[in-house]
Amino acid sequence: MHQITKFPVNFFTLLGLMFSGLFFDASCLFAQERHTLSGYITALASGEALSNAKVYAPKLNKGALTNSYGFYSLTLPAGIHEIEFRFTGYPTVRKTLDLTKNDLPMNVELGFQDGEKVYDEVVVNGKKGDNVNSTKLGQIELDIEQIKRLPAFMGEVDVIKTIQLLPGVSSVSEGGQGFYVRGGGPDQNLVLLDEGVVYNAAHLFGFFSVFNSDAVKSVNLIKGGMPANYGGRMSSVLEVNMNEGNKKRFGVKGGLGIISSRLTVEGPLKKDKGSFIISGRRTYIDVLAKAAIPDSSPFAGSGYYFYDMNAKFNYQLGSKDRIFVSGYYGKDVFSFSDKKGGFGVTMPWGNGIAALRWNHLFSSKLFMNVTSTFSDYKFKFGSKQDQFKIEFVSGIQDYNSKVDFSYYPNDRHRIKWGANYIYHIFTPSSVSASQDTVVFNTGNAQKLHSHEEAIYLMDEFDANSRLRINAGLRYTAFQHVGPFTRYIKGDISKPDTSITYGKGDVIKFYHGLEPRLSFRYLLGDHSSLKGGYAYNYQFVHLTSLSAVSLPTDIWYPTTDKAKPEKGFQASLGYFQNFFDDKFETSVEVYYKGMKNMIEFKEGALPGDNVNDNTDNLLVFGQGWAYGAEFFIKKTTGKFTGWIGYTWAKTERKFPDLNNGKVYPAKYDRRHDLSVVGMYKINESWSISGSFIYATGNTLTLPTSWYVQDQNLLFNYGARNSTRMAPYHRLDLSATWYDDAYKTKTDPASGKEIQVKKRLRNNVAISIYNVYNRANPFFLYVDRNGDFLKGDFKLTVKQVSLFPIIPSVTWNFEF
Amino acid sequence: MELRILIFLAAAVLLGSCTKEVKIAIPGYQNQLVVDGSIRDGEPPIVLLSTTQNIYAPTDISSYLSSFVSDAVVSVSDGTTTVQLIQICTDNLPSGTEAYAEAIFGLPIDQLQQLHLCVYTSIDPSIFGQIGKTYSLTINHGGKTYTSSTTLESPSALGYLKWKAQPNNPTYGYLYGFLNDNPNHNDAYMWELKYLNDGFFTKPFGPYFNDQFFNGLSFEFTAYNPMSYADTAVANSSNAGFFHLGDTVVYRLSKMGQKEFQFFDKKTNQLFSAGSPFATPINVPSNISGGALGVWAGFSSWYDTVICQP
Fold it and tell me: Where in the sequence is the domain holding A49, given as residue range(s)?
């Protein structure tokens, strides 16, 4: 019997010691005068903030990283210090700085002048050694330029497909956008775009990501040891930050692909003070469908398209204040028309996200960020058959505000605290139906209102030169409030009853503490041991009736009946770098326990929640997952890439499902291997490839058949008791770059110089599924023939989605 | 409607994909008793017993026929009278029951008479279905006892049922009726049709519905012709689904209990969505206790005869 253990009480002792240690440290600090070097690090060519840039004092072996807004603060003993400013892909800047008497504000620009030729020899790995030194456990930052060099499905560069190549991360299905992290469900991933929650990160039923790579600046995945400043989900955080736009000059970039095109415009609002970026993307599938289906066809009018737009504006109000306004809007529209049958369907769905952020610098040691976001996800299904019409609407609206403080009291402590409030409005299902002029009674739209609050405090501190600890505590609370109607279904001859709650009535209140702890212990210059423990509450749940992820999956909040999911993850890792940090390796093991997980009860169907609460159709249970992840990565040189392998097991136990017996999760995969390589042949050509192998997903198939009233029916076996064939695939790509420079005579010196061309372009050729493997998407039992004529046959069929698919994309920039 | 879109999505996936037969281990087969039993007002109980077959078992007629069970002891009780059902077999049918046997087994009478397929039933009128009564079924087979019960609800009558020609085709039209739903019931219905001289009723696509959407409402609805799809003269024409001018048809609207409706509703759903990745694997919920599959269903019916004319 697996039990979810509670966090150790000793945690509070540790927390107390940590903060008493902070004040002890502070008292000791008076013994030696110290001063703080602080400021922003930005890209020289564009003026954009650089997150995770490193500020390092090599002689003292002290350093600091910039936050996501490019701010850093490093307190050092009084004196003159040589300081290095590093960022991956850029030359290191070294400065000798005088911190003898005062704090020193220092903004630094890294990189290259626009037009300056970049030579590989001067480019460094700015994150050299970070994987060993940081307390980050199960945390990976992806370089968007690296993502763009990888093979792309149908030419669409995809953030989420790239993270699916990392150990511990699995895709939900072939081509799917949903991802599972260390045995958690796809709803257990907090996906943030500029701090706004993205509830559905997929286009085209999951085959494409909502993240337009031209608008994305950075991608950070936290799959274990979640710090206390994040909450609300149990498995992972995927943080995607949008580009800020070029503060120096106007620019345009875009791409023309086989199914979609994109265009991005950016430029300064005021040079070096503010900038904007607007990026859009649209598919042409509907245009192709229109050409393929003549107007005379009964199916004319059927089609599909999606589009999305990103926009962001930022402005520096002074040396201490910056504001950011960003937004995303994306929509998918599917339509089907059968004029002959008098049948039609329209199915639009999409996300809208708006974010307003304000950075304020109280001092060289105290940084504040205030964020207000609005997230809106809506799914609509409308159908018409002659005079019968039905419409189904589902959606979520979040009004989210939070404030985060970062305090850097000395070189040993990095403290964060903050608060978060979210007002959720869920519409799990709103159904309306009519027959001609008669409107059917489908009940009132089920809207659920709730408040979610959190406060947190965390400190990352160096206990000594080898041991670094990140400890935090998060307190979360959730109120399910009215207006709300609780339906109580009666049997035949008994009328249904209900309980009605008024606006603002607190129907149920949940709260709890979420302790977080991670540590790093340096074993040597190039190796470390890391561990982590995180306890999480989750108040929103994704419920699915289908075997694959669909936009019809319903987001449902915690209610008086559906309790919050809660669970913990404990992980331990050994990190070792080789050959001067050119090779990074790690082994991580984890165990995750989850309670109050949600599934639809056996036999539930779409529409069963009409005139009923969706949670009356839900059942609750627990889950657990454990595994080991092995990772080796080559970070520098002409050849870069990684190999990741995961051994894992994830199971579920629901009293009301599978006769109460333990069963494997549908994405339980014993083995998961990914091999990724990129090779820069010369300035004009680079090639890359990726290979993945995964144990087949589980599914539920019928074990027997029987006949009732001349109909052959299936009797399904134990839940997820059948396993599909293994999944493996090789993708390759090659990118040709037009020479970005031209030779010009410098009018001043008369010498020939290399200057960047105004128009730069490249052509990316990708081949998806090179050896045309028919990977299983799903299996089903096919019925063929006439049962009573004696030629009837049942066969198990495997459906595979994507054969070998070549694609070409032309990208340009000027 | 949702079902149709799911089917369309499944079809779209299938069209854009590659499908091949695979042999894969499907563990967990168990041999279970299957009950297909019903009782109608004014009619005797009818019970067919069979067993489940492994998903990889042969699906020819002889395998199907060999799955029938004829060594069970079956009884039905209305709370006062208990009657043990007798077996009537196709190779020894009482005169006048041939069409009924064809309807039950779906095979022509000449073929049936060569086979030994049996139904459990009774000729004792005291156990014929009566509205308002609850009928308990008990089956003893293989050392196990299986039980169930069903109630014959009061039937609901339509306000009217009429024929109307299509706007541009005066010889083919559709039926339209008016339903008054009882506001105090969670009503469940089944509708069927037959031509006056047909031996048995034909179920349309999706014959089962309940008042989840329209509890207590009154409204007009249309009904299509399910028999036309078996008529080769019109099955593939634009007249498929319509009633010919001059046809005489009998409409049967039957009421049933909620548990029975759950069985038929989920059965319909499984028939139309099984195999779709967008649908959840649904086991049809049985109302038989003791571990058997299938249903024991009581139907109370209202009949109307319509002559298709303006």
Answer: 32-127
